[in-house]
Specification:
The protein is of the alpha/beta class. The chain is built from 15 helices and 13 strands. The two termini are about 25 Å apart. Bound molecules: pyridoxal-5'-phosphate. Pyridoxal-5'-phosphate (PLP) binds next to helix 4 and helix 5.
Length: about 400
C-alpha cells in the first residue's frame, strides 16, 4: 500500500465547477470570486473577505495596508512556514523571532516580552497545522504593546478558539488554498477582517491600487470613467477559475473539517498511550482542524535535551526519528518533519546571526517532529495500515 502525506480530493461537481467561468468568459475577480468571498464570510463569521493569490500575498498585503514599512519590526514564531517571516523582509522590516511551546507548536509570548522596542509594530501569530494560537494572550500582548495583529491562518480552515473562527481576532487573518491545505484552489489565499476601512484598502491594493474594481465599472452607467489609482498597488487578484473551485468545496466545508477531525480522533485513540510519540494538542477551547497531524517523537527525551540545552541529545533523537521515517517510507507510508525552524534556514541564520539554541524549542520541533498522513478521503483501510505500522515500530 502507498499512502501519501496529503492528497487533494475533489469530487466531479467541484472539478466541473471551473467550466462555468471558462464558458461565460469572465476569468478574473468577477462573480465567482465574489461568491467565494461571501461563502468565506458565512463560514468564518468575518465581516469582510478579500480573495488573493496566496496566503503569502495575503500576509504581505495586510502588512502593507496597515502601513508597515522600512525599519519597522514584527514578531513571528521561529517554527512556521518561511513566508510568515519573508513578508516582513519584503517590506524592508526586521523580524523578531519568538520561540514556541512544544506542547502546541505555537508561539510563546514570554519569549519575546523583553524584545519589544519602539519600532515593533506588529505580531503575526500562526495557527500552526490547524491549532489556534492562544488568542487571549496574543490580544493582551498586542494591546499592551500597541501592535497590529495579523493572523497567519494558512492552516486555519475550520479552526476555532473559544468557539470563534480564527482569522477574526486580529486586524486581519490570512488563509491559504495551496494543495497541502484542507481546501484548495491550486494557488490562492483569503484575507478576513472586521475593519471596513482596512477591507477597502486591501481591495484597492490587490487591484493595482484602483479606487473601484472592474466588476463595479462593468455594472456602472458611465463607460468613459476610468478608475483613479490613489495607491501604487499590486496585482494579487484571484481568478474566477480558482474561485469557482474554492466556492464548490465550500458547499461541503463543514463535512471536510469533520472528516479530518474524525481521522485525527481515530489516530489519537490508538496513539495516546505511546510514551515515545506525543499526539497533537486539542480540546474544547482549542478545536484543531488538522491541516496535518504533527506529533513529537520521544517527547520526554526532547524535554530533557531542552532543559540541559543538549544539542547532541537532540541530534540523537533526530537520527532515530529519521530512521523511523525511513522505515515508514519503506512500508509505503509518507511522513514529514512537521515544518522548519526558520531561524536555522540560511537566509535568517546568516542575516541575524542566529544559533539553534536561541529558539531551542523551535529547533527541537523541526528536528524531532513527524507528521503522519491525514487527508479527507483517506480510507479506513489506509488509516488502519498506518496505525498498525506505527504501533509495530522496531525500537
Ligand atoms: C502554507 C503556509 C503558508 C503559505 O501559504 P501559501 O498560500 O503557499 O502562500 C504560510 N504560513 C503557513 C503557516 C503555512 O502553513
Amino acid at each position: 500500500m502507498k499512502i501519501p502525506i496529503a492528497k487533494t480530493n475533489l469530487n466531479d461537481f467541484e472539478k466541473n465547477s471551473v467550466l462555468e467561468p471558462l464558458n461565460n468568459g469572465w476569468l478574473v475577480q468577477g462573480k465567482k470570486v465574489k461568491e467565494f468571498e461571501d461563502m468565506w464570510c458565512n463560514f468564518t463569521n468575518a465581516k469582510y473577505s478579500i480573495a488573493v493569490t496566496s496566503c503569502t500575498t495575503a500576509l504581505h498585503l495586510s502588512l502593507a495596508a496597515l502601513g508597515f514599512g522600512p525599519e519597522d519590526e514584527a514578531i513571528v514564531p521561529a517554527f512556521t512556514w518561511i513566508s510568515t517571516a519573508n513578508v516582513i523582509e519584503h517590506l524592508g522590516g526586521r523580524v523578531i523571532f519568538a520561540d514556541i511551546d512544544l506542547s502546541t507548536f505555537n508561539i510563546n509570548l514570554k519569549s519575546v516580552e523583553s524584545l519589544v522596542t519602539k519600532n515593533t509594530k506588529a505580531i503575526l501569530p500562526v495557527h500552526l497545522f490547524g491549532l489556534s494560537a492562544n488568542m487571549k494572550e496574543v490580544n493582551r500582548f498586542a494591546k499592551e504593546n500597541n501592535l497590529w495583529i495579523i493572523e497567519d491562518a494558512a492552516c486555519g480552515f475550520g479552526t476555532t478558539y473559544d468557539g470563534q473562527h480564527v482569522g477574526t481576532f486580529g486586524n486581519s487573518g490570512c488563509f491559504s488554498f495551496h494543495p497541502r491545505k484542507a481546501i484548495t484552489t491550486g494557488e490562492g489565499g483569503m484575507i478576513t477582517t472586521n475593519d471596513e476601512n482596512l477591507a477597502l484598502k486591501l481591495r484597492c491594493l490587490r487591484d493595482h491600487g484602483a479606487s473601484i474594481s472592474d466588476l463595479q465599472r462593468h455594472h456602472g452607467p458611465k463607460p468613459f470613467l476610468l478608475a483613479d489609482h490613489p495607491e501604487a498597488g499590486y496585482n494579487q487578484r484571484m481568478t474566477d477559475i480558482q474561485a469557482a473551485l474554492g466556492a464548490a468545496q465550500m458547499i461541503r466545508a463543514k463535512e471536510i473539517v469533520e472528516e479530518r477531525q474524525d481521522i485525527a480522533k481515530n489516530y489519537d485513540s490508538c496513539f495516546k498511550d505511546l510514551s515515545w510519540l506525543r499526539i497533537p494538542f486539542s480540546n474544547q477551547l482549542y478545536k484543531h482542524s488538522y491541516q496535518s497531524y504533527p506529533c513529537l517523537f520521544e517527547p520526554e527525551k526532547v524535554e530533557e535535551a531542552i532543559k540541559e540545552k543538549n544539542l547532541n541529545l537532540l541530534s540523537e533523537i533526530r537520527n532515530s526519528r529519521n530512521s523511523w521515517m525511513e522505515e515508514l517510507q519503506n512500508c509505503g507510508i509518507s511522513t514529514r518533519p512537521a515544518t522548519h525552524a526558520v531561524h536555522q534556514l540560511s537566509y535568517y541564520r546568516n542575516k541575524y546571526n542566529l544559533k539553534p539554541e536561541q529558539f531551542i524549542r523551535s529547533f527541537a520541533a523541526s528536528e524531532c517532529s513527524i507528521s503522519l498522513p491525514l487527508f479527507h478521503g483517506m480510507t479506513e483501510n489506509e488509516q488502519d495500515y498506518v496505525i498498525k505500522t506505527v504501533l509495530s515500530r522496531n525500537k
